[in-house]
Amino acid sequence: MSENSKYVILTEDNFENEVVASSVPVVVDFWAAWCGPCRMLNPLIEELAANFEGVAKVGKLNIDEYGQLANQYKIQAVPTVLFFKDGQVVDQVVGVAPLAVFAAKVNDLLPQNNSTIEQAA
């Protein structure tokens, strides 16, 4: 993983603060080092983190190191990407999908402050 990655490495120590208590939507990639599709997904996760920097948080959690969290969120296959809003899981993607799928799900969680309908008076 590169030093300039925009995503957060999640652990049992920081999960509560970084995900559950986050004031912005959070995308969590549950992955494992032995998982080929997880390695294929990694560049998409990095791009997603860069694209949504400042408005949403992206994190990665290694299920082999933090199996208790994987069990808590009922992760049965990797990669599984969970989408959190206000500390709750609101959506998920199991397996690899195009970046546009992940981006659309993050956009759905963002406040729609950019609406021009309300501003047109």
TrEMBL record:
* UniProt entry tagged with the keyword Electron transport: yes
Q: Which UniProt keywords apply?
A: Disulfide bond, Electron transport, Redox-active center, Transport
**Is Repeat tagged as a keyword?**
no
InterPro entries documented for this protein: Thioredoxin, Thioredoxin-like_sf, Thioredoxin_CS, Thioredoxin_domain
Query: In this protein, which residues make up the domain named Thioredoxin?
Result: 1-111
Matches recorded under NCBIfam families: thioredoxin
**PANTHER family per record:** GEO12009P1 (PTHR45663:SF11)
Tell me the protein family, please: Belongs to the thioredoxin family.
Q: What is this protein called?
A: Thioredoxin
